[in-house]
Design goal:
Layout lengths: L9 H25 L6 H11 L1 H10 L8
Helix pairs in contact: 1-2, 1-3, 2-3
Length: 70
Amino acid sequence: MNLLGMPGGMGMMIVFFVFIPFALWVIALVDCLKGNFSGDNKVIWVLVIIFLPVLGSILYFFVGRNQKTA
């Protein structure tokens, strides 16, 4: 099957290395911007997510989401 009309596994590689990280980045950024944090934590997490897109998003989901206030 040729995903995205590309030969071999190129389409799947593009999905895996481009679309999935981009979607993860957008979801992390939106979740962070909508959440309530204490102090300057929101600003720090937004900067981490923007400047370290893949690593920052992963860190946010494992560490930052637990820092949200009610």
